[in-house]
Amino acid sequence: MTESAPPEATTPGAAVEFVDVEPDVSIFCRIGGLANDGIPLVLLHGNRDNHSHYAELESILARTRRTTCIDFRGHGLSSKPDCPLTPDLLAADVDAVIRALGYERVVLIGHSLGSVTSMVYASTWPERVERMVLMAPAAHFEIGFERPDPPESPEAFAAFVKEANRRAAPLFFTDEHPEVARRATIVWSQVPFHVNKNLLKLKHPDLRPVVPGFTMPVLLVAGERDRSTTVDDARWIDEHAPNAQLFVVPGAAHFMHNERLDLVAPRILEFLES
């Protein structure tokens, strides 16, 4: 079932929904462009991020298309159960949301973990995916830095997060965009202790066997200076997905849609209209 937000939580042309995917698990969705027709866009964020990272991009896309920004379970305004987290589970939640909202087909727009979840979804329910935009994508991923040992207690959690964020920073951010780094690390630091523990155990599946089966149009968006999911990672998908195209964002790192919205948004709109 879906539960509509109270009137004060809505804005003209937009609404929020909480979709129950399990008896005690609700997924938050922000829906924009309510008056627009066409195949809806479903936007999926990265690990430890939330729907707010899409605020600027969504405001542009929602001018002409219906948009749905989802918070994965454990993130943002969605429920935060203490359970193992996998891309398969996140994709199943996304499918439950899509069905609850009555979407027959969608365009998936995923960033980082959201791109992994998009690929898992497209390999499971290809008939529901009209096309995909995969930002910071990788079909096979291994973390590029050594995390500090995870804490055993919530009391030590803040220090762990601070040190993990420090080690991760060179892979995700550039000095030219300190506001992007600050925005992301603040959100990362707000993820609850038990969710963070489960995210540390999350394993990215090897999606290389399924990529050649993606026959829908796929736009790959890679940050030129992204050291987490690199241009080479995106190029591998481009070479193996039959209907893919690659856009490398000059000077951008992992959060290219926040750093260079002026380049990313027009390229996505061009892809959607092609």
Overview of the structural elements:
By secondary structure, this protein is of the alpha/beta class. It has a single domain, classed as Rossmann fold, CATH 3.40.50.1820. Helices cover 35% and strands 19% of the residues. It has 9 helices and 9 strands. The chain has helices at residues 55-61, 87-100, 113-124, 157-172, 178-189, 193-200, 231-240, 256-259, 261-273; strands at residues 2-4, 14-22, 25-32, 41-44, 67-70, 106-111, 129-135, 218-223, 244-249. It has a 9-stranded mixed β-sheet, sandwiched between helices. α3 (113-124) links the parallel β6 (106-111) and β7. α4 runs antiparallel to α5. It is globular, with a radius of gyration of 18 Å. The model is unreliable at 1-11 (pLDDT under 50).
Strand line-up of the largest beta sheet: 1-2-3-5-4-6-7-8-9
Q: Describe the biggest sheet?
A: 9 strands, mixed
CATH architecture label? 3-Layer(aba) Sandwich
Secondary-structure class: alpha/beta
Query: What share of the residues lie within helices?
Result: 25-40%
Task: Average the pLDDT over all residues and give the rounded result.
Answer: 92
Low-confidence stretches: 1-11
Secondary structure: number of strands: 9
Write the CATH homologous superfamily.
Alpha/Beta hydrolase fold, catalytic domain
The proportion of residues in beta strands is 15-25%
Into how many domains do the coordinates divide? 1
CATH topology: Rossmann fold
Query: What's the gyration radius in Å?
Result: 18 Å
* Discrete helix count: 9
Name the CATH class: Alpha Beta
Assign an overall shape.
globular
Succession of helices and strands: EEEEHEHEHEHHHEHEHH
